[in-house]
Amino acid sequence: MRTVFPAVRDHIRRGERVVLCGVIASSGSTPRGAGARMAVFADGGFAGTIGGGSVERLAQNYARTVLEEGRPAVRTFQLHPNGTEDIGMICGGTVTVMFQPLGKEELPLMERICALLEAERPAWLVTALSEHGPWTMALWEKDTPWQMAASPEAVRPLMGSRAVLQWGEPALFVEPLTRQGTVYIFGAGHVGRELAWLLDRVGFRLALFDDRMEALEAEQFPTGVQLIQGDFGRIDLPLTESDYVVIMTAGHQGDLAILQQLLTAPVTYIGCIGSRKKAAFAREYLKENGFTEADIKRIHSPIGLPIGGETPQEIAVSIAAELIAHRAGKELRYG
User: Fold this and answer.
1) Distances, alpha carbon 57 to alpha carbons 33, 50, 102, in Å
2) Helix H or strand E encompassing 253
3) d(CA 205, CA 277)
4) Which residues 6+ apart lie within 8 Å of 45 measured at CB?
5) What are 16-37's pLDDT values in tens digits?
6) Contact at 8 Å (CB) between 67 and 42?
7) At CA 290, angle to CA 288 and CA 292, rounded to 5?
8) 3-state secondary structure of 129
9) Residues 6 or more apart from 88 whose CB is under 8 A from it?
């Protein structure tokens, strides 16, 4: 999203037409799922990806046909031999891609999308795909539409954390432009710093919280990461059900202090670094201090997937992998 829509905007500003491609449905084993985006330009260039390989090459070729004809289209590719639209791949899945030509008429919408992406404000792009008429696009910011593509009653139930296609006439494709939620990393030590760089690369919004000002030097972290200096014993943050809590302070006292404050917070994920022995101690300590078994089961500890890493970089990879799995709805846990 961050590269595709600015590229689309810039080409339209120059008076060029663009075809915006998007995976709207997939099944079986496919390189990318619904919501993957690619733009194809008249000069032969492109931005973004819908999975690479043969499906992307054929989609680019077909997009140039759409660019010439000026009519939107939907096409399905079979990623297994001898199927309809067989493309010689053996993944075994099916990918449905929409192709939408855009021009100067869509420039205000593209400008607004880019502004929202830059500000990281929650928004959804709604595309109404009609079989018998023109397609329309609309932008929803929270509960407020910016242009209309369908009724609010039809759109609101589809505004979630993942792209959704609802067949009908017209079919509605609703996709989040920005990922909701922030990963709050408590502890800006070696692992915390490495984790910040990895999570930034895979699209998480980040905040680092530490009680040491010297640990929060901006040049040690990706641009745009929120840096918070405060007391681990007094945490006052606007946590939501989309946020993540990752605890890795310099000592178990800090970890326990944070767990006691945030274990019942309305967040989607709570993880705490440490060995199995430390994790067992923390669970017993929390139980003795009035937390229920349901509360304690929320904790991912030891944090990360068991890939055998030992260095801060390797540990950060294991944690990032677990967070990616959680974001994707895959419940993978240590042990």
Assistant:
1) 17, 10, 20
2) helix 252-262
3) 31
4) none
5) 999 999 999 887 655 567 889 9
6) yes
7) 105
8) strand
9) 54, 81
